[in-house]
Amino acid sequence: MSKITGFLEQPRVKEKYQPVDARLKNYAEFVLPLAGDSAQKQAVRCMDCGIPFCNNGCPVNNIIPDFNNLVYENDWLSAIETLHSTNNFPEFTGRICPAPCEAACTLNINDDPVGIKSIELAIIERAWQEGWVRPQPPQVKTGKTVAVIGSGPAGLAAAQQLARAGHAVTVFEKNDRVGGLLRYGIPDFKMEKHHIDRRVEQMEAEGVTFRTGVLVGAWDKKSTVTNLAKQTVTPEELRAEFDAVLLSGGAEQPRDLPVPGRELDGVHFAMEFLPGQNRVNAGDKLKKQLRAGGKHVVVIGGGDTGSDCVGTSNRHGAAGVTQFEVMPQPPEHENKPLVWPYWPLKLRTSSSHEEGVTREFAIATKEFVGKGGKLTGVKTVRIELVDGHLKEIEGSEEIHPAELVLLAMGFVSPVGSVIDAFGIHKDTRGNALAGTEEEGGYVTNLPGVFAAGDMRRGQSLVVWAIREGRQAARAMDQYLMGTSVLPR
Fold it and tell me: Which keywords, in A-to-Z order, does the entry hold (predicted)?
């Protein structure tokens, strides 16, 4: 235990942000990580509980009290070794994870929780700075070959684990750069992409081969999902060439809003909007980038993707941004005795919201209105929750001016063409059907073909993707070798 009375003596130390007017001028990260001494002051608040609920609140089961104590003792090398033992990419989760571990923190019952996420980020940033993050190539090669389809967090985590187990791993990515939704779904102001690039360099030194611009299976030409592939391979070719295959693509099929006027010019999915800016930031020249500059923007959907659209629109110089959420506004503070240690429903205000947005709750879209085929507004109606059902309020219809609508209502499933091309059974939500049992988990109905991450569980968090990638790697190692020393 670091200091038994630390949580009584030290208030929570939060990361600071650059001022709004400064950060809106670019797409760079604006969160200022905790310095070493600040992280140590934060770590001292950890009580090293007899039952550390934070461990179970974290999908990868980070050993949180241990690395908190190591930071307090100034043993940063041991801290990163402890953190890496459960999480391949803490620089990703330290930036974009919503931190369910903090919601489960025992201190959160009646105080501010330990800033676990900020400590995690401080540890990995110190490790990169000191040169402690090095390639870990296997001492012995197994002679087995593995194909990983999708280079998001699930695919990257699985590929790294399998390579370190001695297998020859090839990662296939349909787009032109590695990272999946980390690369083209997460705005750069939340996570700059050089964090992905340096991990790719590490993995290449560990023996992983990356093949970008390669599509596996067929593709629906009507799809709005980003696809920059210049080459196609078939599932039959992969199964013939590799001893095992992992499907680890993201849930990219967006939820649509089929109301009158949906066909108007100006109504787009969020993932038609966000990837374009990331590509421009990376140096690509786009002929028709979808931009919000000078427009009244309506974002439909109150989650993280909607928040990302708000932040990007403001950086484009939008005339105004309004965000719709169909559910009533949640309470500003949760009832902790009722919901702890679970993830609470409460009003969450992101850094993008703080940059400028009008938030509308309990509102539904009735129609997109326009003139000459172009969007001019959104017709809405107010709703209320009655006996568990949403009911329209008579006489509450109004029209909001809009030249750009971004649909950010979540994702229904992975792109089905890859799953269908393999002939893999699906669950009721359109995901690849596979279990998570320790013996025989993550395998589909096809021997040697596995599924993990969004491809198996549907839209979820980066930290869940990393967990599934690691567990799938162990299952595949067991399949290939009969046993495995990889952690689950």
Answer: Amino-acid biosynthesis, Glutamate biosynthesis, Oxidoreductase
Q: Could you give the residue ranges of the DSSP H alpha helices within 165-294?
A: 181-184, 194-205, 235-241, 270-281
CA distance 423 to 383: 42
For 151-188, how does the pLDDT look when each residue is reduced to its tens digit (9 = 90+)? 999 999 999 999 999 999 999 999 999 999 999 999 99
Cα separation, 189 vs 194, whole angstroms: 12
Mean pLDDT of 28-50: 92
d(Cα 229, Cα 291) in Å, to the nearest integer? 24
**Rounded to whole angstroms, how far apart are CA atoms 81 and 434?**
31
Could you read off the pLDDT of 48-95 as tens digits, one per residue? 888 999 999 999 999 999 999 999 999 999 999 999 999 999 999 999
3-state secondary structure at position 284: coil
Which residues lie closer than 8 Å to 189 by C-beta, 6 or more apart?
A: 23, 26, 27, 28, 29, 30, 311, 315
Closest among 465, 417, 456, 451 to 227, alpha carbons compared: 417
**Which pairing describes strands 244-247 and 145-149: parallel, antiparallel, or unpaired?**
parallel
Which pTM value belongs to this model? 0.96
Which residue ranges form the domains of the chain, and what is each CATH number?
A: 6-130 (1.10.1060.10), 145-253+411-481 (3.50.50.60), 256-407 (3.50.50.60)
**Inter-helix orientation angle 76-84/116-130, to 10°:** 110
Q: Are 101 and 82 in contact (CB under 8 A)?
A: no
Q: Is the pLDDT of residue 1 over 70?
A: no
pLDDT, residue 2, reads 65
How far apart, in Å, are the Cα atoms of 85 and each of 79, 80, 119, 467? 10, 8, 16, 12
**What pLDDT, in 10s, does the model give residues 222-272?**
889 999 999 999 999 999 999 999 999 999 999 999 999 999 999 999 999
Q: Is 448 helix (H, G, I), strand (E, B) or coil?
A: coil
Closest CA to 80 of 36, 42, 112, 114: 36
